[in-house]
Predict the structure.
Amino acid sequence: MFDESNTRDWLADLNAEQRGAATYAGETLLILAGAGTGKTTTLCARVAWLLGEGTPADRILLLTFTRRAAREMVERARALSERVAPHAGPVHGGTFHSLAHRIVRMHASSLGLDPGFGVLDAGDAADLIDFLREEHGRAESRRRFPRAQTMLDIYSRTVNAQMPLLEVLAESFPWCSEHLEALAEIFRAYGVRKRRLGVLDLDDLLLYWRALAADAVLGSRIGDVFEHVLVDEYQDVNGLQVDIVRGLRANRPGLTVVGDDFQAIYGFRAASARHILDFPEQFPGAHTVTLERNYRSTGPILAVANAVSAQDRRGFPKHLWSERSGGVAPELVFPRDESAQAGEVCDRVIAAREEGMELRMQAVLFRTGHDSDLLEIELTRRGIPYVKYGGLRYLDAAHVKDLIALLRLADNPSDEISWFRWLQLLDGVGPIRARRILEALRPAAEAAPE
């Protein structure tokens, strides 16, 4: 199964640090991968090496955070593995939530769940909380009360951070602290309604997976299924996910995590870089490999990055370097406001074009979609053509969610969440009237309208 010539070929494509990480033969490995240092390449190479060493493909688990990252990682790992062990078969890979869904459904009966339970995505969960918000009379309150999405963020943070609601409000949502009792009441109703409807939300999936991992019998069986667990973007895990990883590897070898404490960006999901910083303490004896050769940027840009990261006294020290020559030192500009910022960007785009750089070779990066609003107006005003990438995922688009709600009603006419959404598509029907319609129909025959 193991082709020595192929092994030499693909290992030769790695630098010394990447190769050391990919071929590490010990029990627990922490790969500190600076930005642009070939993190995914190294992780996929490690999967290929494990397969080449005889680990069965179905006993390797790859975990990451987004579906896109999971798809890319699994595809690249499969392509490389076919060069090394062409008959090994596919490895298990996916997001924490997708794997949780698979495992929880497999053990639903042991958890006291209906094996046919439904799953609420973030949009569905917000709709249900909005329904309960209306039901509890908070939509008609004269005082400002958190909207459904904010309430879902608060609820999710209490679950993922494993913190009391009081502490979450004080730390992250201080303006909502006065509504502590009302929020607690709605969140309790949310749990009751989910159980009545036979559905779980995304946070529930992780909670139930953690419960399984902590069980003396079932946790041991699930952990024994995998000889090696690899976790991508470990700087973005939260406490709940760390508990799951520790449960999977309790008293077992075979754990590789990859991440960079300087790239932690998912704080709003209760993720914390402290988990990767504490990894050597949580997993004593872990071996650390640091990737510092950058393949993406030039020296002047890396010099700025290194100067900024050197100010972090608690983080793992890293000094990025590159063999790429040239490059221009970055500039830090302070426009007086966002309008001036948009004008400055357009001035530079036009100036670069006059110097011979085509428009399609220029890019503007921004943190969130709405940050580009004034820039888009200014680009249009100046006649500068542009293409904007990003925005809503297809399944998050309103018309798609409307169709999904209709399909759910065809499958389950008692789905109050879907009725709540569909009733509001009618002229003159808003959240309050939709709730009243459902309340009026419910006592007559504990069922949805026909």
Notes: Residues 338-381 form one domain. The longest strand covers residues 28-33.
